[in-house]
Amino acid sequence: MKDLASCALDTATQRGATYADVRVVDERGRALATKNAKISNASDSRSQGFNVRVLVDGAWGFASSADLSRASVESTAAQAVAIARASAKVKQKDVQLVSEKAVTAEWSTPHKIDPFSISIEQNLALLQKIDSELRSVKGVTLAETNMNFRREKLWFFSSAGADIHQTKVTTGAGYVAYSFAGSEIQKRSYPNSFGGQWQNKGYELVDELKLVENARRIGEEAVALHGADQCPEGAFDIILESSQLGLQIHESVGHPIELDRVLGMEANFAGTSFLTLDKLRTLKYGSELVNVVADARQEHGPGLGTFAFDDEGVPAQCTPIISNGLFTGYLSSRETAALIGLQRSGGTLRAESWNRLPMIRMTNISILPGEKPLTGEQLISSTDHGILFQTNRSWSIDDKRYNFQFGTEIGWEIKNGKRARMLKNPSYSGITTEFWNSMDAICSRDEWTLWGTPNCGKGQPQQVMGTGHGAAPARFKKVKVGSAYKGN
Amino acid sequence: MLTQEQAADIFSRIRKYSTADEVEGLFYGGRSALTRFANNTIHQNVAEENYGVSVRTVFGGRTARATTNRFDDQSLKDVVKASEDLARVQEPDGDLLPVPNASEGARATQAVPSRHFAETAAVTPEQRAEGVGKIVSIAQKHKLTTAGIFSSSESIEAMFNSRGLNNWHTQTSAEISITMLAPDSSGWQKSNSPSVANLNPQVLAEIAAKKAVESATPREIAAGKYTVILEPAAVLDMTGFMFFDFGGLAILDQRSFLNNRIGKNLFGENISIWDDVAHPLQSGPSFDGEGVRRQKIHLVEKGAVKRLVYARASTEKMRKSEYADKVGPVEPTGHGFPIPNEMGEGPMNIVFESPRDPKSVEQMIASTERGILVTRLWYIREVDPYEKILTGMTRDGTFLVENGKVVCGVRNFRFNQSLIEMLSNVEQMSTPVRTSGEESFDMVVPAMKVRDFNFTEVTKF
Known about the structure:
- The complex is a heterodimer of chains A (488) and B (461).
- With 488 residues, chain A is an alpha+beta fold.
- Helix content of chain A is 21%, strand content 39%.
- Chain A is globular, with a radius of gyration of 24 Å.
- At the A-B interface, strand 1, strand 2, strand 3, helix 2 and helix 3 of A face strand 1, strand 2, strand 3, helix 2 and helix 4 of B.
């Protein structure tokens, strides 16, 4: 790999690049799925390739190829330089990068069991067992299960001397029970929607999820939703269980803190952000209880945003995003850090694969658990009247990340500190900062889970990336509930 | 570019290495480049060349797929083995059909026009930069900031199988998307075509700039039910949410909003929709994920859903099901996705039928006493899968219309709107045009004037 990279870097610099980096990626994936007991997906994928990113005349160029021959490496590097020269024809000023020490390093995702070492028969037998549990419930009309593994080997070299090799391992598993009756389709997912739980971990994740043990309950809840009352409309105290709070963080904290959005670089597709530069260290984002970090370090946990170095060779870091309610930090790269006068990149540049340009992506954007002991049961018992929201069903937010609306698969009315009737079609909506300022309780560490969101889309051409979100159940006061069905 | 002869050679080696009863090779890839600009600067500029083959093996009712982007002998042996290892250990599925032969499904209703244009394949970074330069000039002329993309590509898609099927498709594509930003407003335009000659960056930039300028200092208007004029991109991104429900398997799975509704007058009488890969404004290959030729299908006729689309296996299942005599003609239509898959099939070449009396957007505005003109929608998600209630936001050019005129820009709305009701409340339509959005695949759709569109909240800008 080093020879390949040297060839590309030499070609780029000889042709005028003032900076160049090379990423080589070798990835393998396996996806298995069942639908009503039949195998609906059994696939294996392998992809290898490299890219060259260059700065020439103060502008960026990027070219990629699956052909790793010397001739291809040279021509791809030359192509990147030619593209950069074209970029330089439409620029306002030269790109500047904050400095970063070039290092030589090697790192792998800690994992106990290589997911590719588990036999396919064992994988399929587990999915079939879950399927039969789900469909043993009368009224379940469609059962879907899935299991996904990925191993990604990455090499990063730069003209400044960086030489980094990382191997990331990802595992995901989950299932959904659907029930169609009358004029309703209801569903329940476990352990979360979006294909279940996803972490940078080995097969041990599948063993930890208690998939079979929960299947019958999930099937029963999907069917029971038909008989549940419609979620009422009005202002309520609400409790979000941790996976829904994870998605709330993703949409209303994670995206608006991306500095490329803030600086207008994503205006055409993903949008911009309400978090303009004047709001840094002045905006009261949330209540005193709200503490959010962007933490890519291994010690944060096995999130989809955990690594040792980002895709421009910057070490993983923990950036305080919201500190006791105050907005304190953005997600940055070497280029965007320079644009706002930061001394160093926050290390958040990542690419979907070898053929995509690295861009600012969420790492693990997590709300820290409450410091005082508080269980989920205690949170409910301290709530007079409210609604508990579980497992995301729909999600939408405007392109500056102010107005959001979420629906969940199931809700529960809380009355006099007890979980009372089941509610169907629950939804809530609000304005980001008003919502986070209404948070008055969050459970402690024992209730905190690091969830994986495997399907975050951003960029042109679009890239799909996995992000991590640690969260514990939390309560929000007087939130607007039920407007998704208003007028329909 | 990978040639048909090279692909055929790769497939012959795959066959040689395979011990399976049947083998299929799905080839994909090409060359693509995208120039991205923001803050009146080209800030990202990328190019890619990649080809892959997805190998499906079949052993007596058991099948699986493996994919690689490397075509040396060892990589091909590895990909065949990976596919066979996944297939062999499965329980046989009695419903799995043999791969189609060369003549099966070959009833093409009409020839698909060539979608490969040499001029588009040859677009250079300098040409894209020149186009972006023109867009930036227009932004600067109006004292605006612009962001967007100019992309071009040349791609192949091919299907070979061990029963002699040999389908090959090559095409080009070009796309321009432009956002113009003012301090408190924005405007947007996007266009996509197999031929770059059909794209005019200056015209698109001027329209986007006009929207940004005219929606400045937006007023806040209360949420509620309004007559709306949805430009084609807004219609595309809304209606795109329903077409995956038009597959036979979606009915069999009971996950379609069309369950118990086929043949009924679901939408207004003025709504008729086709799936037609050969339409001159459409794009894509003439065959589906199994290699079967795509047929022209009249999905919605005067407001009633008359036809579904089918993969071969879904056809067989539907014929044996309780729904068989309630869903219209049941036959393979050439709309299957590559096997194995969870979705079955879907119509991907949607064409709305032109109305008898088309109205331009300007005529729709002129006929509106009070309403909202919507350029584009954003972050649309399904709230209710059976009533097809969708939520989302307006974006990049939302205007108040009063007494037949655009009065001012307004703050963006959140909507929660049943798609069924929306298509029942269409008062006027334009001539359909090829349209590109962000939430759906490209389609040929009209602008629509719709009454009682349900806005439920207003955002801060």
